[in-house]
Amino acid sequence: MLALLWSRSDEQLVRRVLAGRRNDFGFLVQRHLPAVLSVARGHLKNTSDADDVAQESFLAAYQKLDTLRTPEKFAGWLLAIVRNTALNWQRRHKDEVPLEEGVLASLHQETVAPDRKEMQEMLHKTLMELPLESREVLLMHYYGGCSLREIAAASGISRDAAAKRLQRSREALGVEFLKLVPEARPASELKQTARM
Prior knowledge:
Blueprint lengths: L1 H5 L3 H9 L6 H19 L3 H18 L9 H19 L8 H8 L5 H16 L2 H12 L4 H8 L3 H22 L6 H9 L1
Helix pairs in contact: 3-4, 3-5, 3-8, 4-5, 5-9, 7-10, 8-10, 9-10
């Protein structure tokens, strides 16, 4: 029975939930959790806040499910809720001092070699400085494990457009990241930086 439920489309699951099978919403949560967390983390620098936004977004989606006119577009509708929830979260918490991401990471991860930790921090910093659209697509693909088809559906664009957006985002991340890595800079650029 569970295998049959997992094979159902979003549209079928939404219709089942609306017909009174409320527990089927759990399948939608499990299916879309990686993408939801990716979008939330694209907006918020604090992982704990992003987790709270994800939870708040799923609750809002469940409560508003009867307003969804096109159940086959559940993924895009859900990610729109996540984006709005994240923006509202930022407004409500803008005056709070966030717990440092590094402190959170040290609480939840094993010890990482110092050079690798430095690279991870540089990559995270670079990623968070990219435009939101680029951050979202990179996080959805690499963190959330979303396919191009899933990114396209969630973003309301074609698969080809999603592929192009991912490619451009990768390039932008690479260019910005390499600016932070002294070993990756051309020697002429390093000499100019040293003279300044």
